Amino acid sequence: MDFFKEHTFHIPVLGIGYSLDTAVKVAPYGISSVMSLVDDTLIEDMRKFYCDKLDIPFQAISEKVEDFRAKRITTYLNMVDDMVKEKIEEIKDSASKAGIEIEKYINLLPDLSALKEKFNLADKGRHAFDDISKWVNENVLPGSIDVNIMTKLDKVNVKDGVELPIEHNDAHAALRGFANSKLTSGIVFSAGMSPRLYSYIENFKDFYPDENGQIKKRIILKVSDFRSAFVQGKMLAAKGLWISEYRMESGVNCGGHAFPTNGILFGPILEEFLHKRETLYSTCLDAYYNALEKKGLDKPAEKPEIIVTAQGGVGTNEEHQFLLSYYKIDRVGWGTPFMVVPEVIGVDKDTVNLLANAKEEDLYYSGISPLGIPFNSVRSSTMSFRKMELVEQGKPGSPCTKGFLKYNTEYTEKPICTSSRQYQNLKLKELGELNLPEAEYKKAYDSIIEKECICVGLGVSSELAKNIPVKPIDKVTVCPGPNMAYFSRETSFKDMVDHIYGRTNVLDDRPRPHMFLKELEMYLDIYKKRIEAFFENSDDKKEKMQLTKFRKNIFDGVQYYRDLFNEHKKDIVKELDRLLNRYPVLHKEIEVAEKV
């Protein structure tokens, strides 16, 4: 598969704006990345920025234009595609001149790359460039310009007071914007299953194989376990839609919204994929062929392929290689570490400094997302400061200027956002009328005001980094995973890639736990909090059953890691024991909970 020909890592989606133009910087060098399609206004601003930079006439697509959201997305994606293709031609052209661009392309590749062996600049003389120019032209390929849609962000839109048809919902319009673009790349669906969105994919021919059996628009499914992959894979295959990639993410994840399992650890999940990958493939293939036949489409001459990738918490070359070799992962996602690489990610200088200086205690699992989904955060972001300033002024909540997360109808007929001033005023008024004990009141109060305007906050940094005028709010939300604690300086693109491939080390000298153990620690913390909450409401039988299952999954995972590492990685087993010894109270609490 050409799109996985060389590099063994990709850059996942980061926030709303952080990786919005990452493909422009990395795709010409064969590295795949993912951009968010949430904010069409930000996308339009980014298009204007590049038009101005490249001296291309810019014609705005206003909200008065029919289907403006989809058209903004299509136009920007086409522009990115053009920029990447132009840069790729420049790189190919430099090969015949021994130019620095082809040297940069080659030097970024992993050492075992076939291209690197074929075109070793250190050993070849000037005459060799002419001999292999044709070969370079065929084998120097761009990384994939992939996009992401969170399936839950499918807000109904209104025009002149009337709800628009479902195809104008946020996620549907974003999908259409991608489908109508000229990109040959993938769309990552995350945040769970959406049958109605999946059905909408059937309307676009680029998701089906062409006369040569090639699929122009690939489907990438981000999942947290094998069962989810199997269910969704069969569902889409039955529609004649092939999932080209299953992208697994650990509980630690790459930053932003976290979707923790019920205590099932990443190692056992990867092991299940390793052993059941062929079952997944064959089951989906049969359903896929049957669906194509029913739709009157030809069966591809060659069988479609699937790849399995993994991401979340990876921080060393040793971990990277272990995922590739032991679990037969096709590619590994590196997200959070790139947040300190402004050469690649759209992040302003102040935020880079905040991230580089963040320690373990500064990175936490928060409730700031209006979606009610746990969210990775860093303390002292400018949006968090603004949020608390408004609370102190007696004006909790934020003006809802973007509206992508308007889902709550607790107090209003039309959905509003839980981080909005309107919602928080209503919620706090209700809370005040309950006459709760002080400690209980404080806990509920903090939970309400913790919500933050991430629609704005996750996009602002990319604009600040480019000196794009920001209005009306210029405060930043930043969402690194806990892995950020060990990357403590601004890093160049080349140095980070060299770190991934083991050619250098950009980590600081503080002890860093293995990625599997960092995730285990997170689940132990979650479990401890849930146990404590259970004792406050010990008659909740459903929660007791969930906790019992959570406990079993953790203990099964711990035993799996003992068996996995006991023979060759005894240092990790010792680290595992030290971690478990920090949670002695859990055993006592579990025993008590089981007697309730």
What does this structure look like?
This protein is α/β, with parallel strands linked by helices and about 600 residues long. It has a domain at about 515-595. Helices cover about 45% and strands about 10% of the residues. It contains 21 helices and twelve strands. It has helices at about 20-25, 40-55, 70-95, 100-110, 115-120, 125-140, 170-180, 195-200, 225-235, 265-295, 315-325, 350-355, 380-390, 420-430, 440-450, 455-465, 495-500, 515-535, 540-565, 570-580, 585-595, and strands at about 10, 30-35, 145-150, 160, 160-165, 185-190, 215-225, 245-250, 305-310, 330-335, 365, 375-380. The strands form three sheets. Strands 1-2-3-6-7-8-9-10 form an eight-stranded parallel barrel, surrounded by four helices. A two-stranded antiparallel ribbon has the order 4-5. It is globular. The termini are far apart.
